[in-house]
């Protein structure tokens, strides 16, 4: 029986104690392995190019080069499959987070989130999915895209979604997981994934994080709404 190799993770954080805690947490999982560490953004870029990790846990506020600039360099300068970057921050409304997501980061998690949430974010990223910490989905997007919500009508592409695809899209925009969406709509998780894939394709979006951003930018969902 063939087993998949563990997910390689690079941990970038300028605080030694925080970095050590993340290394212990991630390294203690049988399906994850820490392949490199970095104490600043410049080192994160260098180490990412050297070891090509599957996932990078990137602190947003670091010396020499901040996490935003490091994310851009890593994702635009990659030859071959790009690493997936998950942004970590102490602040639930960090001014750099929206830009980090636009730069290609596939997730945003708070450092004080429960360990299981952080591990879920790493595994989701490695699987090609994305995760924004549910505790801050609404406030984060509202804070940095609210000024764009004056648009009078949704983009024409939204009209191409079927009724079920729009339901899935709206629930994703509220920060729901696939499991929660499946339960809410009484359908299988595999069906949710199929609908979401079609939504992303029709709207030209990269992943569920950018689906959330798209929804808020175009006033398709109100902050704080949750069915």
Structure report:
The protein contains 10 helices and 6 strands. By secondary structure, it is an alpha/beta fold. It has 2 domains: 136 residues, Response regulator (Rossmann fold, 3-Layer(aba) Sandwich); 69 residues, Arc Repressor Mutant, subunit A (Orthogonal Bundle). The protein has a 6-stranded parallel beta sheet, sandwiched between helices. Strand 3, helix 3 and strand 4 form a beta-alpha-beta unit. The protein is globular.
Write a brief structural summary:
Keywords: DNA-binding, Phosphoprotein, Transcription, Transcription regulation. Helices cover 46% and strands 13% of the residues.
Q: Classify the fold: give the CATH topology of the largest domain.
A: Rossmann fold
Biggest sheet record: 6 strands, parallel
Count every helix, treating DSSP H or I runs of 4 or more residues as helices.
10
CATH class division of the largest domain:
Alpha Beta
Number of strands: 6
| Overall geometric form | globular
> Can you tell me the residue ranges where pLDDT is under 50 for at least 5 consecutive residues?
none
Which architecture of the largest domain per CATH? 3-Layer(aba) Sandwich
Please, how many domains? 2
CATH superfamily of the largest domain, called what? Answer: Response regulator
Counting helices, strands and paired strands, the structural category is alpha/beta
The helix-strand sequence is EHEHEHEHEHEHHHHH
Hey, roughly how much beta strand do the residues contain? 5-15%
Strand order of the largest sheet: 2-1-3-4-5-6
Pfam families: GerE, Response_reg
Domain HTH luxR-type: 154-219
Modified residues (4-aspartylphosphate): 59
Domain Response regulatory: 8-126
């Amino acid at each position: 029986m063939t087993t998949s190799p563990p997910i390689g993770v690079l941990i970038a954080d300028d605080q030694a104690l925080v970095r050590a805690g993340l290394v212990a947490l991630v390294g203690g999982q049988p399906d994850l392995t820490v392949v490199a560490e970095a104490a600043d953004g410049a080192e994160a870029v260098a180490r990412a190019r050297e070891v090509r990790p599957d996932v990078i846990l990137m602190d947003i506020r670091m010396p020499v080069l901040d996490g935003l600039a490091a994310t851009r360099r890593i994702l635009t300068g990659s030859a071959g499959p790009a690493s997936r970057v998950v942004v970590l921050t102490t602040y639930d409304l960090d001014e750099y987070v929206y830009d980090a997501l636009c730069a290609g980061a596939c997730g945003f998690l708070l450092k004080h989130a429960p360990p299981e949430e952080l591990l879920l974010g790493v595994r989701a990223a490695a699987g090609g999915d994305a995760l924004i910490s549910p505790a801050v989905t609404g406030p984060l997007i509202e804070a940095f895209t609210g000024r764009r919500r004056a648009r009078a009508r949704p983009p024409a592409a939204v009209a191409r979604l079927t009724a079920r695809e729009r339901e899935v899209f709206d629930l994703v925009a509220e920060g729901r997981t696939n499991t929660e969406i499946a339960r809410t709509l009484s359908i299988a998780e595999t069906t949710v994934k199929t609908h979401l894939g079609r939504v992303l394709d029709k709207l030209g979006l990269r992943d569920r994080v950018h689906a959330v951003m798209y929804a808020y930018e175009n006033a398709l969902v109100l902050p704080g709404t949750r069915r």
